[in-house]
Amino acid sequence: ETLMEGRVKEVPKLERHLERARRVTGQRALRFPAAGEDSATMAAAAAYRLLRNRSEDELKGARFLATGTESGVDHSKPISAYVQGMLRQAGVAIPSSLSSFQMQHACAAGTLALSSVGSLLMNTAQSGESGVVLCTDIARYKTHTTAEVTQGAGAVALLVEPEPNLIELDLDTQGYYSSDVDDFFRPLGSHTAEVKGSYSMECYIESLEQALLDHCERSGKTIVDALTDTDYFVLHTPFRNLPETAMTALLEKHLGMDRERAHNFLAHKGLFDGVDTIAEVGNIYTGATYLALASLLSRQYAAIGDGVVGKSVLLASYGSGNTMVVLSGRIAPAAPQVVSTWNLDGLVRGGRTATFEEYRRWAEAPEQLSEVAQSQPSQREAPLFALTEIRKDGYRQYSFNPRGAAIETAASAGTEEERAQKQMVGEHNGAEAVEKLREPIAAAM
Q: CA 409, 154, 169, 309: dihedral to nearest 10 degrees?
């Protein structure tokens, strides 16, 4: 039984609204955390896969451990601090001589953390120093609403270096736009967000144009040049179809394109190579832009190989409430060696289909600690890290699962996937539970 089938059985009048939501968003599946998982454990799993094969000298060079999230687990302590502890439990020798912090502005927080760490490294880094940025979130909305189909959960870990092997970012020409709006927010104490869907789309489109104009002013380009000269577009993707809607509005206004021409133009610019993966995973908030980027790079490398080197990329990261960051980059000479080690499609296909009842238990309860204590997950579901206890004083305690790590190592033996994790790691619900809107699909990263 799928999410749509389950909800329509409960409330038949929802069928028309949910069907329309599926068409408008383009979503086919969503991801939610299993027992013992939260935004901290997902971030730790992504960081572990990024760092576990780095040498001791490379780990000593880590100067920054930053989180971008809107799913924090403590009002004071950043997720990055919990992750540092979990990594040490797992035997990853992350140093104490680093700065650990957290950024927040809805879905743009990961990009704000990335640009902050990049700027700090540009100004302070000594030889061999680097930073790690963790984008981790759980997108959760009220049940029996059209927003329910756009939920998701996942984390992405990014290695940031002064001389990167994947994408070289131009931080000097970042374009910004911010405004005080109420398109989307999550009140303190609430596990679900409040969203004004149509209004939020209007805010996204307006802020994209304004931030792009700011970027153009700082880079000495016209908006026409920026749109036509850029090789690849990667936008924040809360649901599969929004980036196309926003870019079509820009192309119509500034290049005079109709919808068909705009669609073909965006296909040529790789937009759909990025967003199609989101349709199978759901909205992962701060990590969505970087999952789309990884998907685009993977598919473009499969199509043109070393031809990806030197291609320009325009990234646009939106945070409701609101802010937009637009920054440009160029694919680095070593990128083919990095991307060739990825198995993104395998990661997306590698999950377990959840039942509607499993999904409903998660949707109706903020924590599942009793299930954590009592359940004995199968080998396939053994998580790397788990929330094992919330103490009486509210402090969260986590544990590393060596058995889960051993299973992962055995599963990946003989592959090249570990090298990919040194550059970009996507961890979409470590326990691999997914609910497809029409027909079940396993989708995990």
A: 50
- Which ranges of 161-287 would DSSP assign to H, the alpha helix? 197-219, 223-229, 242-255, 259-268, 271-281
Cα Rg, the chain, nearest whole Å: 21
Q: What's at 92, amino acid-wise?
A: V
Residue 27 to residues 79, 139, 148, 167, 279, Cα–Cα distance (Å): 29, 14, 11, 28, 4
Tokens in use for 68? 């971008």
**For tokens 């749109």, what's the residue?**
227
Report whether 153 contacts 138 (CB < 8 A). yes
Q: How far apart are CA 242 and CA 411, in angstroms?
A: 36
Q: Which residue has the tokens 């009220």?
A: 142
pLDDT tens for the chain, 445 residues long, are 899 999 999 999 999 999 999 999 999 999 998 888 999 999 999 999 999 989 988 999 999 999 999 999 999 999 999 999 999 999 999 999 999 999 999 999 999 999 999 999 999 989 999 999 999 999 999 999 999 999 999 999 999 999 999 999 999 999 999 999 999 999 998 989 999 999 999 999 999 999 999 999 999 999 999 999 999 999 999 999 999 999 999 999 999 999 999 999 999 999 999 999 999 999 999 999 999 999 999 999 999 999 999 999 999 999 999 999 999 999 999 999 999 988 888 777 766 889 999 999 898 876 544 445 444 455 446 689 999 999 999 999 999 999 878 877 666 654 444 444 433 433 333 332 233 333 222 222 2
**d(C-alpha 156, C-alpha 114), whole Å:** 12
Distance between CA atoms of 303 and 232, rounded to whole angstroms? 14
Which tokens go with 198?
């149509």
- The dihedrals phi and psi of 75, each to the nearest 5 degrees, come to -70, -20
Structure tokens that stand for 239 in this block = 């649901």
Question: Which DSSP string do the residues of 305-370 spell out, in sequence order?
Answer: GGGGTT-EEEEEEEETTTEEEEEEEEE-TTHHHHHTT--HHHHHH--EEPPHHHHHHHHH-S--HH
